[in-house]
Amino acid sequence: MLLNLRVAACLGGVLLSACGASATIARPGSNSLGPVGSSSGRNIDEAAGLTRDPNIAAALADVDAAHIRHTDSMLVSFGTRNTFSDTVSQTRGIGAARRWIHSEFERYSRDCGGCLRVEYNAKVQEIRRAQGRDTIVRSANIVDVLAWLPGRDTSHVIVMSGHYDSCVCSAGGSFDSTSTAPGADDDGSGSSAVVELARVFSKRFPKGLSSSIIFVTVASEEQGLNGARQLAEWLHQNGYKVVAGMTDDIVGNVTAEDGYTDSTSMRIFAADPDNSSSRELGRYVWGLDKIYMPNFDVLPVWRLDRIGRGGDHEPYVTLGDPGLRFTERVENYNRQHLPTDDFAHVNFGYVANVARVNAMTVASLASAPPTPANARATRQGRAGIDPTGATATPTSSGGQAWTLSWDASPGATSYELLIRRTTSPTWERVIPVGNVTRCTLKRQLDDEWAGIRAVGPSGARSMAASMPAPNAPRPAPTPGGRGGAGGRGGAAGTGAGTGAAGRGAQPAGPPPALCGA
Question: Which end of the chain is more exposed for a tag (fewer CB within 10 A), N or C?
Answer without folding.
Answer: N
